[in-house]
Amino acid sequence: MLLDMGAERVCDPTREGCVAMIDSVRELRELPDRFEAVRRATKKMAEARQEATELGRLRKLLIAELHDEGHSYGDIAKAVGLSRGRIHQIKQDGPAAEGAFLGSGSITVAIPVKRETIRSRPVVAVEDTDVASQLKDLAESFGLDCSTERIPVGGAIDLNRAGLIVVSGPRISPAIAEVLDQDPFIRFERDHDQVWTLVDRQTGQRYRSGQDQDPPRPNDTAYLGRLRRPDGLGDLIIFTGIHPQGSLGVAHLISTRIDELYRQAKTDRFSVIVGADYDPDTHSPTRVELLSPIYRHEAV
Fold first, then answer.
1. In terms of CB atoms within 10 Å, which end of the chain has fewer, N or C?
2. Are the C-beta atoms of residues 143 and 53 closer than 8 Å to each other?
3. Which residue in 122, 124, 126 sits closest to 282, CA to CA?
4. Nearest to 151 by CA among 114, 117, 190, 196
5. What percent of the chain has a predicted confidence (pLDDT) above 90?
6. Phi (first) and psi of residue 128, to 5 degrees
7. Torsional class of 38: left (φ above 0), alpha (ψ -120 to 50), beta (otherwise)
8. Same-domain pairing of 63 and 121
9. What residues make up the domain containing 239?
10. In this structure, are 76 and 154 located in the same domain?
11. Given a cut of 90, is residue 118 above it in pLDDT?
12. Alpha-carbon dihedral sign for residues 139, 57, 160, 268
């Protein structure tokens, strides 16, 4: 049973889900440690907000799919128990469906710590820090929580986590290299001169960074993909340039063309080679393009 509460409806408090919610609130209220009650209530509220955001995103997507299949908004409204005006409002104002490209609820952006060439100090590239900042802003614009962590020198990282975006490649981490090796369409290789190269397995085309050519040019080549986690229980996003400027190019691509990426890849496994021209002084991308098709791995 549903109770009409104006523009929306809420569940009948006699139903199982609502009873559980009321019991949960009562349990917190009765905790003798009120500090702990506040902590738990805060955590539950954050989880509820994340769930509401993702449910809103899913609802908007499903309405769009039903309409694309030929159902009128009036028919959809009647079938699901909402007004036609509310359906239109959800279509216009609900969380953007393409946010699901990044993940759901909470995401973590992992960037590498590298060993400085001259002084051998552990450092984080400025470009990677900018990448993390851009992704955090983008994620939060879609109602996602976003945190950043650093991959230590040596590349040890737990890849078996939900909502993980790794900005690193095979040179940094053996664990990441193993995940990248499963890609059936694109691979990282060291060329005859030991320079890292991206290879399109479908066409045989090889892509190097402009920095590694003679004379050097201000452009880089990068990888972007969603691949299966080592435990097989989920996926993670990996992207990296052959050099850090390429990673900035991918971040720019995701930030400005996420609707296109989502339209072609959804939340499925995929990979693509990205090219990025950049300003030689600031390293900011000046032009970003797809150098390969967006390969959908489900076709394999």
1. N
2. yes
3. 126
4. 114
5. 62
6. -70, -35
7. alpha
8. no
9. 100-299
10. no
11. no
12. negative
